[in-house]
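notes to self, project folder thing:

trying the whole complex as one job this time. last attempt i did each chain seperately and stitching them together was a nightmare. two parts in total, labels are on each line so i dont mix them up again. if this works i'll redo the older ones the same way
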Amino acid sequence: AQSVTQLGSHVSVSEGALVLLRCNYSSSVPPYLFWYVQYPNQGLQLLLKYTSAATLVKGINGFEAEFKKSETSFHLTKPSAHMSDAAEYFCAVSRMDSSYKLIFGSGTRLLVRP
Amino acid sequence: DTGVSQNPRHKITKRGQNVTFRCDPISEHNRLYWYRQTLGQGPEFLTYFQNEAQLEKSRLLSDRFSAERPKGSFSTLEIQRTEQGDSAMYLCASSRTGGGASLTDTQYFGPGTRLTVL
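result (full assembly):
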C-alpha cells in the first residue's frame, strides 16, 4: 500500500534562510508525487508535481523538489524563506490505479521568524 | 476558468441534523473528488466521480454520507444525522483525465467547507 511520511510537524526558519521540508513515500511502483500548500482556512494550492520526467521539479513561489528513488524521498526546498511562506505544506502520492486519488502526509507547518 | 468553488464555506449545525454541501468543479473537468480533513491531519479520500458515475467510495464514507453528481457537473455531499465526529473540513477537487503522466491528472482543490457539529 502506498503511504507518505512527513518528518517534522513543525519547522521554524528565519526569514531569508533555507527551507527544507521532508517527505518520504512508500510505493511499489514509481509514483506521481505532489506538494500542496494550505493557508489558514483555505483549500490546497498545488506547488509542484513529479510524474517521472525530470527528477528536479520546479514549482511556484521559488519552491522546488527533488525525486530520489534510492532514498524514496521527495523533499521540498526553497533557498530563501519569505514571511508569506508561512503555511501548512502537504506531500501527497497518487494511487497508481485508475482513480489517481491522493494519499496525503500529515503535513508540516512552516513558521518563518522575522 | 474560475477554479473550484464550494458552498457554504462554513456550516454550524446541531447533532442529528442533516447537512448538504455543494461543489462546482472547473468547467470541462470530468473528475471530481471529495476529501475530509480533520484538525492537524492531511486530507483523506472519501469518494470520486468520473462524469456522473461514482466510481469509488472509501470505508470512511458511512451510510450516513451520500454524494451525487447529476449530469456530471456540480456535486453534492450530504451527511444525515450528523455526529460530533463529522466536524471537519470537507474539500472538493477536480481534474481532467488524460491518461498517463500528464498535467491533466492534476487535482485542483476548492476552498473547502468547514463543518462544526455542536
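what i see at first glance: Chain B touches chain A through 30 residues (CB under 8 Å).
need to look closer tmrw
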